[in-house]
Amino acid sequence: MTQDASSITWNTETFAQNQNANAVRFGTLYNFRFDADQPPNPTDGTVGFFKTGAPMAVLIEAPGNVPTPSPTPTPTASPTPTPTATPTPTACAGLNITQIGGSILPGATDTGNHGDEQVTNIPLPFPYIVCGGTYNNINVSPNGNTQFNTSDSNFNNICLPWSGHDCTIFPYWDDLRTDSNSGCVSFPGGTCGVYTSVTGSAPNRIFNIEWRAVYFASPTDTANFELRLYEGQNRFDVIYGPTANDNITATAGMQSSDTSLLSILATVQGVPLLAAGP
After folding, report:
1. CA-closest candidate to residue 170, choices 240, 112, 93
2. How many CA atoms within 13 Å lie on the side-chain side of 60?
3. How confident is the model at residue 151 (pLDDT cuts 50, 70, 90)?
4. How buried is 115 (Cβ within 10 angstroms: 0-12 exposed, 13-18 middle, 19+ buried)?
5. For residue 127, is pLDDT > 90?
6. Cβ contacts of residue 201 below 8 Å, gap of 6+?
7. How far apart are CA 59 and CA 41, in angstroms?
8. For the chain, first and last CA: distance in Å?
9. 274: buried, middle or exposed (CB in 10 Å: 19+, 13-18, 0-12)?
């Protein structure tokens, strides 16, 4: 902890000592308490992040003799236009979901995705029909999603829809990484990454995309799952292997636009999922 005349700065460990020491998880409440010999005084504070994002300004109660925040001018009221109604997200038209059995088919081709927040463009072995279009490539994130029109590496998963990311499949969206970490030893070859394989023969091939990943906040714990795309169909399968945190933080589902989606929360370890839709 460092204290000067007008501020207190602290961290549990340095970033070099432990990359996860100051991890802040989505939807988690954090309380910090300091004892002082003076009454509280409202003042400004700043929350900074090691990993990504700009510092966040907050209003706090600090000991006395701390400068009071500058008052915010009260804006003059102006006529408020009638807002345009926001469409309610609806299920993807014609999409059906069925639970199936199955196990992961280990990928044989290394896509080169070995990192944290690294998105890799993968050529498809056949044109794939989805979201009313036909695609020859797919952008794969280590964070467990596949994007057909965007290539966003955002690790902060949310409830769907993910604004601005039309036509995306989310097999297991969470803060994951595929670079070298201790948990990778449990995977074939002792490495993490995204691997692919092709089964069947034209015109009935299946393209398998397998994630061998660990959690950013706990790199000893693994998440193993696979997405399967079907030639000549708009069908996809998701097969789940072991996931160390029992899926309590992941988002799984599919969206074809900001307002047309199928959102499924992955809640049961090892339960496979099949979906067919637009």
Report:
1. 240
2. 18
3. very high
4. middle
5. yes
6. none
7. 10
8. 54
9. middle
Is the full-model pTM beyond 0.85? no
Distances (CA, A) of 41 to 2, 5, 30, 36, 90: 20, 15, 20, 11, 48
Higher pLDDT among residues 92 and 174, named by residue: 174
Residue type, 19: Q
Burial of 37 from C-beta contacts in 10 A (0-12 / 13-18 / 19+) = exposed
DSSP conformation letters of 218-276: EEEEEEEEEEEEETTSSEEEEEEEEETTTTSS-EEEEESSSSBEEEE---STT--EEEE
In the block, which residue shows the tokens 């599919």? 254
Side chain identity at residue 18, one-letter code = N
Q: Which of 56, 55, 51 is nearest to 21 (CA)?
A: 51
Q: Token pair for residue 153?
A: 């590496």
pLDDT per residue as tens digits for the range 199-239: 999 999 999 999 999 999 999 999 999 999 999 998 999 99
User: Residue 82 has which token pair?
Assistant: 């009638």
β-pairing, 218-230 vs 120-130, is unpaired
Tracing tokens 């994630």 back to the chain, one arrives at 211
